[in-house]
Design brief:
Length: 190
């Protein structure tokens, strides 16, 4: 049976800005304080009464796989607003294989925990997960599943292509050929 924020049975479960309130011992004060802070960012009462859709943004200058995350966030925000929701973007850890220390698997597990706790901590009714690469997507899905909030994953596109000496470079498997042109680079790839 559903319970309200005060734990009374029979009421619809809380949603939107009424979800996951900090307990100050007074439910009215908790929602007043939350709305007072968020209204300072320019949100109206009408906007704050809509379903809250979180947008987990993994964009990072260290992660070229997520180079288009900003564009995707803006498109998602427009879609959520057109559907009658309130989009709320929030950051999570961003993983890139060649920048992960000590290992990308270690950071993947940390990202899963980060994603879960960010979803749990914010008053969202659903979440859109933006990410790419083989560690990010599983981390986000594991975190969202553990948080128990409806989620959809939007996998980012491939990295932007680059060029070297007027030749287009698209795939990592070309890296050994590139390193072969760097003094000492070819020896590391064999």
């Amino acid at each position: 049976m559903a319970k309200d924020e005060a734990g009374k049975p029979g009421a619809a479960p809380p949603h939107g800005m009424h979800k996951g309130l900090t307990n100050y011992g007074d439910l009215g004060f908790s929602i007043f304080l939350r709305k007072a802070f968020i209204k300072g960012a320019g949100y109206t009462d009408d906007a704050l009464n809509r379903p809250v859709i979180g947008i987990a943004n993994t964009g990072s200058a260290f992660n070229p796989c997520h180079g288009n995350a900003g564009q995707l966030v803006e498109a998602i925000k427009r879609g959520v607003m057109l559907a009658g929701g309130l989009p709320m973007e929030f950051p999570t850890i961003s993983i890139h294989e060649s920048f992960a220390q000590p290992t990308s698997m270690y950071v993947r597990n940390l990202m899963s925990m980060d994603t879960e706790e960010m979803i749990r901590a914010q008053p969202m009714d659903a979440v859109v997960l933006i990410g790419g690469c083989d560690k990010t997507v599983p981390a986000q899905l594991m975190g969202a599943a553990s948080a128990g909030v409806p989620a959809i994953a939007l996998v980012t596109g491939s990295m932007l292509t680059g060029s070297h000496r007027s030749e287009t470079r698209r795939r990592v498997h070309r890296l050994p050929a590139l390193l072969g042109q760097v003094p000492g680079g070819g020896d590391r790839c064999r």
